[in-house]
Amino acid sequence: MGQSIVSILPEILMTIFGLMLIVIDVMSKDEKKSGVGYFGIAFILLTLLASVPVGGFKIVGFDQMLVWDSYAYAFFIVFAIAYILTTLGSVDYLKANGINKGEYYTILYFSIIGMMFMVSATDLSVLYLGLETMAIAMYIMAGFNKKDKRSNEAGIKYFIIGAFSSGILLYGLTYVYGYTGSTKYSVIAEMLRTNGVENLNIKLGLVMMLAGFAFKISAVPFHMWAPDVYSGAPTPVTGFMTVAPKAAAFGALIRFVMVALEPASVQWQLFFSILAVLTMTYGNLVAIAQNNVKRMLAYSAISHAGYMLIGLVAANDLGYKAIALYMIIYGFMNIGAFTILGQLKNKGIIDDERLESFAGLSKKHPLASLAMLIFMFSLAGIPPLAGFVGKFYIFSAAIKSGLVWLAIVGVVNSAIACYYYMRVTIYMYFKEAEYDASIEMKPASSIATFIAVVFVLLIGVFPSFFINIVKMMIV
Amino acid sequence: MTLQHYLALSAIIFGIGMTGVLVRRNLIVMFMSLELMLNAVNINLAAFSKYLHAMNGQVFIVFVMAVAAAEAAVGLALIITLFKNKETINADEVNFFKG
């Protein structure tokens, strides 16, 4: 029993702090609601420090229902990065849009508890509960700007399709449970090893489960919700949604396929290699046609999920490490880009984020433009920035597993992607402004952008330090 | 009544729910169809649990129901905010983003 408690200690800490956050929200004045966010940052940093892994430890709890290990901790770091940067980037956005409410930070905070359970789950019931804790919080976040029709629409669409995909995942799950007689990953693996995966019931169950996962990571052809939800949700929330829930879904998916589906590795690798090619290519090709930068970044988020799927298909240690590293890097560069995007203001134009708004910004706001340039170059994967390191490791994992063709598809795709990332910088530096747009960087969002830029440069220039950390975590 | 009967029933209900979400355009009806899908899952879990003589399926049902209740709260709230702004709950008219 003692060990069981220890295995969920980080989640218990997070929950207690989260409840305190609600109280702090009630006690703080209307104009000081940002304080809730700062307390959230402090709490998440405290939990991070309190649960530092000592060596290659692994605590199994509750009769193998979940496990707290350095792998779960590595993903916790990703969530913490996403929360800290998003909170800092939201403070000014919320004030400017008149939605400065404390529950914004609290709901964001509680969604992370769900994500932590997802990543440490080794039982389907824990996985499902974590998934829904995360998803329900994210439905609210997507529709948070109640007065904005676009935000309403994003919330509704995310809700209907999210619940639909959970239903499909659950229905598949029942067949897996019925066939193997257990919801534990280890027992499922054992049953699949002895009985094979040729039975129609188990095939149906597994395909439906993996399709449900594919919805969550917005892999083509299960992506149709992503562009609308990402472009409708409040801008900092979009930055968060493209990183943290996706990292959680990948973390849970890796554990599920690595432990439970280990006997069926040929089948799921085929399934996900097809999805990876479709996702990368579709995301990049459609992103080229976008004139709205927020929507373009939404499609780019789809294509980045495709790159990460390559690491999953590679199915070796290097691949999983590469995904974790990529997630950290992607968190910095994408949330950084969305922070700047959230501060972009047009006078009298509703469609805030179109490409023309960026024209000539480098003259008015040289520092913000430079930061945006760094994020765009990093997303495109140009050395010596962090994005290059992430892509390099993903592709080398694929080559190590003999998937040279997949690596080639990935490289070709990142070459295509350069076009639309470069277009933003060309507008910023070489076009004349057509109308009055500006980036108003207030202190909080400046700090978020600064942290992101520093880490994108640091990881790009000194990758070995960060790679070693990830190598230590993911065994 | 064998296991197959229950599975067939649940498959039919799941099919009705899925068709409802894809075909109907009223958000409330779509939402009800989602609940049907979850109920099909519950029937499956109960049937398998009885057949396998294992309790964890039935425990799972409690989780699914609790989550469905939470989802209902959030989903209805989202539909209400949408209705306040647009005066419609028709999914086809919720089309700010096209394609």
Can you walk through the features of this model?
The complex is a heterodimer of chains A (about 475) and B (about 100). Chain A has about 475 residues and is mainly alpha-helical. Chain A has one domain (about 1-475). Helices cover about 75% and strands about 5% of the residues of chain A. Chain A contains 20 helices and four strands. Chain A has helices at about 1-5, 10-25, 35-50, 70-95, 100-120, 125-140, 150-180, 185-195, 200-215, 225-230, 235-260, 265-290, 295-315, 315-340, 360-365, 365-380, 385-400, 405-430, 445-460, 465-475, and strands at about 60, 65-70, 345, 435-440. In chain A, the strands form two sheets. A two-stranded antiparallel ribbon of chain A has the order 1-2. In chain A, helix 10 (about 225-230) runs antiparallel to helix 11 (about 235-260) and helix 13 runs antiparallel to helix 14 (about 315-340). Chain A is globular and about 65 Å long. Chain A starts with a helix and ends with a helix. Chain B is mainly alpha-helical. Chain B has one domain (about 5-95): Helix Hairpins. Helices cover about 80% and strands about 0% of the residues of chain B. Chain B contains three helices and no strands. Chain B has helices at about 5-25, 25-50, 55-85. In chain B, helix 1 runs antiparallel to helix 2 and helix 2 (about 25-50) packs antiparallel against helix 3 (about 55-85). Chain B starts with a helix and ends in a 13-residue tail after the last helix. The interface of A and B includes residues 160, 167, 228 and 231 of A.
